[in-house]
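Much of what follows relies on a compact textual record of a protein's fold. A record is reproduced here so that you can trace the correspondence yourselves:

. . .
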Amino acid sequence: MESQAQSSTNTPMLKIDNLHKSFGKLAVLNGVNLEVEQSQVLVIIGPSGSGKSTLLRCVNHLEAPTDGEIYLEGQLINDKNKNHQAFEKHINHVRCKMGMVFQQFNLFPHMTVLENVMEAPVHVLKKEKSIARDIARSLLDKVGLLEKTEAYPLMLSGGQQQRVAIARALAMEPNVMLFDEVTSALDPELVGDVLRVMEDLARDGMTMLVVTHEMGFAEKVGDRVIFMADGVVVEDAPPKEMFSNPKEIRTKQFLAEILQ
């Protein structure tokens, strides 16, 4: 019994084993290996085209990996032995455990902020509307937008819309949050509010994979930073080490360009 408990404790929240992804002849991921522990914040940096966003999309199975295996809490996500119907049901279940926030907010324009956050808990998790409403209000309060419950997305700034998108992802009660360049489409003065929400999530113990160019956030909030280039993980280190003393030439070149 004790060994089972120990094994469960040692199981990473997310494990990626030899992940490959190609689009036709274009190889985007070329053998990525990663483990992310529970409550760990992994920040992913690298040049455009290095495979960062594709990695997140494969983790959430918005893109089907060409090869390799992905495990969530020890469970194989991309199990090729399941039939199509069973696999789709399995993937939908997995996606409920992973919240993903994109560059674009993807809010429903015809729904209020409150309705946007309630939608998935009601229709996917089958929660009572009154319960989903309470959860939505609590999450909107958490991201600093409780006063905007009856507003529509087009009435909000980009930063506010992105915070609603984060609340909507959290409403599914995920075990892992994936953030794909969530501040890159925002005006500079709006970035800080979104990063503060993400910092609060990290402080609360949420496991997070964050693709970003915000190096200050990476250094302050990240537990680990990986540098990707040409579809592989070139370097993996704690933030202080990554930014003050990178080991690989390719990492040094990238940081010299982006931090100048």
Remarks:
- The chain has ten helices and ten strands.
- The first helix runs from residue 2 to 10.
- The radius of gyration is 19 Å.
